[in-house]
């Protein structure tokens, strides 16, 4: 697609939707969560014994959500970077390089920005937001379980997301399993470990975005307007 003058290119890969398929080595799972505490569950989920060392891509439906989660997770001391179309081209390249080099173990991304990425080390994909197009789901989860490797895809499901999940399961021809990890109760861990700290850090992250502060301490007015899920 031709670029308009002055427009920065976005990472895009055109794929024949008829050829889309779920890798045979991919395990698909879902976690039912209250939408009012998605960030709390995400924080706890990333720190479970089975997930704490995994290389992860978190997918969001909006650039504003991706930017917000990047701020929040960084303040919660996760090694995280982001990839979305609102970032300058140079920053997208640098962020992706950090992720490839394992300087960051978590990449928060949107669909268009991350489509076509081939990073074999990715072992977990999290659908923080459920895509409305099942083909987008296939693109997302295809970022793991590549070249015959095993991988996991976990979808966060709220009360109003059931129809979207059913549409995805129909499209891929496989049902999602309920996620579980031995000895782990996410709700208990949220209440015990994350409720207060994540709520406080959320306010700090939103303030950073509002004030347009960059990680290095420089001030720059942000063009991103945060919009809740």
Going across the biggest sheet, name each strand in turn: 3-4-2-5-6-1-7
CATH architecture: 3-Layer(aba) Sandwich
Helix content: 25-40%
* Main sheet attributes: strand count, strand direction, barrel closure: 7 strands, parallel
CATH superfamily: P-loop containing nucleotide triphosphate hydrolases
Number of helices: 7
CATH class: Alpha Beta
Low-confidence stretches: 1-5, 7-18, 219-229
Number of domains: 1
Beginning-to-end CA distance, first to last residue: 30 Å
Q: Beta-strand percentage?
A: 5-15%
Rounded mean pLDDT is 88
- Summing up helix and strand content along with how strands pair, one would put the structural category as alpha/beta
Question: What can you tell me about this protein's structure?
Answer:
The chain is of the alpha/beta class. The chain has one domain: P-loop containing nucleotide triphosphate hydrolases (Rossmann fold), CATH 3.40.50. Helix content is 36%, strand content 15%. It has seven helices and seven strands. It has helices spanning 38-46, 63-75, 89-100, 111-114, 134-141, 162-172, 186-211; strands at residues 26-32, 56-60, 80-83, 106-110, 124-127, 151-157, 177-178. A seven-stranded parallel beta sheet has the order 3-4-2-5-6-1-7, with helices on both faces. Helix 1 (38-46) crosses helix 7 and helix 2 packs across helix 7 (186-211). The two termini are 30 Å apart. Mean pLDDT is 88; it is low at 1-5, 7-18 and 219-229. Keywords: ATP-binding, Helicase, Hydrolase, Nucleotide-binding. This is Helicase C-terminal domain-containing protein. It comes from Bionectria ochroleuca.
């Amino acid at each position: 697609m031709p670029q308009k003058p002055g427009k920065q290119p976005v990472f895009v890969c055109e794929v024949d939707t008829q050829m889309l398929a779920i890798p045979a080595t991919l395990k698909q799972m879902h976690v039912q969560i209250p939408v009012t505490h998605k960030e709390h569950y995400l924080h706890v989920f990333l720190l479970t014994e089975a997930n704490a060392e995994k290389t992860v891509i978190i997918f969001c439906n909006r650039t504003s959500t991706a930017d917000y989660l990047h701020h929040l997770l960084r303040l919660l001391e996760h090694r995280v970077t982001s990839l979305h179309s609102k970032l300058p081209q140079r920053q997208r390249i640098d962020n992706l390089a950090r992720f490839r080099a394992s300087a960051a173990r978590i990449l928060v991304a949107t669909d268009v920005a991350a489509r076509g990425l081939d990073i074999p080390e990715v072992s977990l994909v999290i659908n923080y937001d459920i895509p409305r197009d099942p083909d987008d789901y296939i693109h997302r989860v295809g970022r793991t379980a590549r070249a015959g490797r095993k991988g996991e895809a976990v979808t966060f499901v709220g009360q109003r997301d059931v129809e979207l999940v059913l549409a995805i399961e129909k499209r891929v021809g496989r049902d999602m399993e309920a996620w579980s990890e031995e000895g782990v109760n996410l709700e208990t861990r949220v209440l015990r470990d994350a409720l207060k700290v994540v709520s406080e850090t959320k306010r700090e992250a939103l303030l950073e975005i509002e004030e347009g502060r960059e990680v290095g301490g420089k001030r720059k007015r942000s063009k991103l307007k945060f919009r809740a899920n």
